[in-house]
Amino acid sequence: MNEKKLRSQSGHNRTVNIVIYVILILMSIIWLFPFVGLVLQSFRSYATEYGGMVAYFIPKEFSLDNYTWLFGSESSFPKWYLNTLIIAIFVAILNTIMIVGVAYALSRSRFKGREAMMQLWLILGMFPGFLTMICLYFLLKQFGLTQSGAIPGLILVTVASSGMGYYVCKGYFDTIPKALDEAARIDGASSARIMMTIIMPLTKPIIIYTALTAFMAPWCDYVFASYVAFGYSDSYNVAVALTRWVWTNDYQGYYTRFCAGGVLVAIPVTILFMCLQKYYVEGVTGGAVKG
Fold first, then answer.
1. What is the pTM of this model?
2. What is the DSSP track for 135-167?
3. What is the pLDDT of residue 5?
4. Burial tier of 12 (Cβ tally within 10 Å: 0-12, 13-18, 19+)
């Protein structure tokens, strides 16, 4: 009787797993379809297929014409790509330093006003950043950090408020036993030495997670970047520049080139996540605790 029940249960579990896998496969196909289309369209030849909208999905002739054009003399794509890379790298480094420093201080130290500060930052974080966009634009304009100075302006704005995003990082620090700090202090280690030689090696996942998320913010930024660099193409990032191509309504010339640019934009982020996925997951799960 028990054997029959086990077989029935096993068959039921197998059926449930099949249904789940079928649903997941269908969801994956739906999710990946736009990306596959983007890649395929980027390999369409403008010279032979007119570069615009067509009635077929797979190109009749694969070509690197669009990628060649992006790096040719007629395109400013390399400059826009470099602008985006510069902003993303500086923001990733500076944001990580700021967030890790604030999270470490709030996790390992106890000082007057600590709780009030955390509550204030939590409340301020509930307000959308769009509310300050116009004010920030005019403030940056007063210091010459718009249009031709948009790159340092975007770095400054992104880094200035980064310390408020300490929540996940602080949660990870809270999981590290404070007994390590106390033992090191007994041996005469300073707070800085404890942080650099004891705590930091244990927090590699959360540091990589913080750097990745900080890198992603300016890499995908469009709204604020379009305001700050408005009308000055040399300061565009790739998101703003590629959008300007779409706004030209010249699908005959820019549609497939837009797709090629989108593929090149996705490559660095994809590589980073594939190489650092393990640390990214550990950082998220390790920091998702109540601190």
1. 0.82
2. HHHHHHHHTT-SGGGHHHHHHHHHHHTGGGG-H
3. 61
4. exposed
